[in-house]
Specification:
229 residues, mainly alpha, Arc Repressor Mutant, subunit A, Four Helix Bundle (Hemerythrin (Met), subunit A), 3% strand
């Protein structure tokens, strides 16, 4: 008797897998526009970010084309498409939600422990971030350094390693790479004013204010990205 190991599949891949089956089975024709994101979220009983991640997975597999401002369309060659992403990485919105939780608490702790030198480093990174925003092909390196420095300032190696790992997932997973490239192509860049508020709260050594500033920033990123594309 041949038995295959049971594998747990991420939610966005489960949604993508069902849609792929419908497309290959002829229930959704080539050239057809898929239902709106909110409609699909209701039908599948999942969040809009999960649907957005599923669409990106289908795009990577060559099943659909995402047209900004128009919708998601099934491609003519979808029946000969590649398999879904095999790395089973968390989706970009999952990573952002995790960052909001971890980095909010890291920022609160950093407010109690950050040094004046680290505050100055953050101010320098704000300037670098502003300069990067003027570039056509920037990859948010100053943004990453800014957030990881705050995690380091919390003075807890486990927190610092966790935040660095979340950023590594963001930068290296196939679905996140595609997602953030699309975001960059649409001209969406780090919000400098949000980062200034975070530095101000840290400089005031205000743990509650620092937590709120970081959590509000990352929630704004989630909301902004969800309403884009």
């Amino acid at each position: 008797m041949e038995i295959q190991a049971v594998k747990s599949q991420r939610l966005y891949l489960q949604v993508a897998d069902q849609l792929m089956t419908l497309i290959r089975g002829g229930s959704i024709d080539a050239g057809q526009r898929l239902p709106a994101e909110r409609d699909l979220a209701n039908r599948f009983g999942v969040s809009r970010p999960t649907i957005r991640e599923a669409m990106i997975a289908l795009e990577i597999a060559g099943m659909v084309e995402i047209r900004s401002g128009s919708g998601v369309y099934v491609l003519d060659n979808s029946k000969q498409s590649a398999p879904l992403a095999a790395d089973q990485s968390p989706g970009p919105f999952e990573i952002l939600e995790a960052r909001r939780l971890f980095e909010g608490e890291a920022c609160a702790l950093a407010a109690e422990r950050i040094t004046n030198e680290q505050i100055e480093e953050l101010r320098d990174l704000l300037q670098e971030m502003d300069q990067e925003n003027q570039q056509q092909d920037a990859h948010e390196q100053a943004d990453e350094q800014f957030h990881c420095l705050i995690a380091e300032a919390a003075g807890n190696s486990a927190i610092s390693a966790t935040v660095a790992w979340l950023w590594r997932l963001r930068n290296e997973s196939q679905i996140s790479q595609r997602f953030h490239q699309r975001v960059r192509d649409e001209g969406i860049k780090p919000i400098i004013e949000d980062h200034r508020r975070i530095v101000q709260a840290l400089e005031e050594r205000d743990p509650a204010g620092s937590r709120r500033a970081m959590a509000a920033h990352l929630q704004r990123v989630i909301d902004h990205l969800l309403e884009s594309q």
